[in-house]
Each structure stands twice: as structure tokens, then as C-alpha cells.
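Trying the structure run again after the queue cleared.
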Amino acid sequence: MAADAPRIALIKLSSLGDVIHALPVAATLRAARPGVRLTWIAERREATLLRGHPALDEVIVADTRGWRRARTLPALRAAVADARALRRRLAALRVDVALDLQGLVKSGLLVAACRAPVRIGFDRRVSREPLGAVFTNRHVLPPPTARHVVEQYLALLAPLGIAERRLEFRLPVVAAAEAGIDNWLAAHGLKPQRRLVVLNPGAGRADKRWPVSHFATLARALAQEAGADVVVAWGPGEESAALGIVDGAATAGVLLAPPTDLAALIALLRRASVMVAADTGPLHLAAALGTPCVGLYGPTSPERNGPYGAGHRGLASPDGRMASLVPASALSAVSEVMA
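Done. C-alpha cells:
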């Protein structure tokens, strides 16, 4: 790549699902502007999803989560030093265009640190934090046809004259993680894509989580009535809920998944027949892999935040409360997707 190649920075820090939904922006930019140098700025956990992505030249960590966790004086000093080093690094990028895909004040500050002459972001009317629009100078109001968040992110490319989209969700393949999941499945007599349903009880907000008792009822029905093998995946802070599902199902064929990092979770979801979860990162990981999904939605909209692409189902609660979404509806949707 030429030293004077145009430089574009994408600022999408988190969360896992949001970063996945923004991947087509990188793929589209690479296809439309093959000569650019493309950098993505993300939180530490999300950066692991991006490293090695074929559309990206560089991934930079902005550890704002770590900074916020600093409580002791040494930790605070380290956080300040890290933030200052990041600011210097972003300024040294000499970016021509910065895209704020986050729409927050913290992402806006990173856009400002890039010192790009062209700074693209959402119009304040649709920004999650309207004050964040202060840091951009090209403001985009996505068209009414851009109903899903994937399409809304892609709308930010309009000021660059890019209309043709590349809907690609490239996710990393780690050989050791793939082999580890294959070994675990074989040890439990499970076969990939053979009516293997993965459940995940987590979500970033309590009001987005489906009740453990509902998951247990669904798991029991899937095992006893649909003849499915059910694996309950879990992440940090979710193990007790996952165990509650397995214990509540109280039937053979419902298993607790092993502890998984991001690479192992991807490997497990790649082998699933169906993924069932609320509006959470693992659901969107599965959709990005092409695994059929049943998404469970209460306070958020499946039209905007549902599993993206064909072959998925997004179930909306009748009153916005997750408890009102009954297990029978989920069972019916899983049966349709597996048919």
C-alpha cells in the first residue's frame, strides 16, 4: 500500500453485537476504495473479533472499559497515561476521514482525536447521545428504508459517494478453538448441525433477558418433543442462569456448554442448527455465521436489532416485557427454522 494512500478510521467501540452489525461498513469500504488504509478503533474485547479481518489494515484498542474500572491511584494514573498515549497515536494516524458509528460523546472524542478533516456521523436527531454530533462535520440522517441497524450504519457511507453495499460478516477462525469444540461435542455424543440447538440466557440489560424458567421450559420441549440436542452457552456472569436452565429442564439432552472465550463461542455457534437468545452479542454472532436464529425481543425492536439476513425469526413481546413472550411461541419458531 502506498504511503500516501487515503486513510479512514472507523470508530465503533462496542458492544459485541453492534460491532458485528458494523462489519459490512468495513467490507463495503474495502470493495469501493481498495487502496485506502482502513483502521478500526474498538474496545479490548471487541478488538479480538476484528484482528485479522481482511478488510482492515489495523485495529487499535481504546480500553474505555478498563479506564472506567480504575479505582486506585496507580490504576488511575495508568488509565490517564493510556488515554494520552491513545490520543497521540490517533493524531499520528493522519486520518483523512473518520466515521463515528457509535454516536456517543466518548466516540466523538475519539473522532476529534483523529483530527480528520472529514468527520462523518449520525444526525443529532438519531444519535444515541445528541451531544456526540458536535464532534462530526458531516451529519447523516438514514433514509426511512434503512430500518435495520446494519443498513443505518451503511448509510454513513453516503457522504463518500458509496452506494453499492457489501453485506459480509467475516469472523475469525481459530483452529485450536474449532478442534476444542469438536472434541467436546464428540465426548458428549453430539453431532454438528444435527438438530443441535444452542440457547444463551444473557443480555446486557436485565429488561432484555428472557426468564430462566421460560428457557428451561423451551429446553425441555426441544429435547422431549422436537428430538433436539440442547446446549446452554454462557458468558461472564451467566453461569448461574445457564445452570438454572439445565436444572429446570430436568431432562436428558440438555447440557451446559463448557466455558468459552470468543473464539470457542464462534466455533460452537458455527456447528449449531439453531441459536435462541435475546438481543445480545452471541445471537448476532450466530446470525453473522449464517446459523439460523430465533431472537427474543421485549424492549428493543426485532425490525431494527433482529438477527440480520434471511432464515431468521425475531419474536416481539406483545407488551414489551420479556416474560410475556411465552415458550410455546419460541418452540414454534425453532421448529419452523429447523424444518
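The mean pLDDT is 95. Worth checking whether this holds up in the mutant runs.
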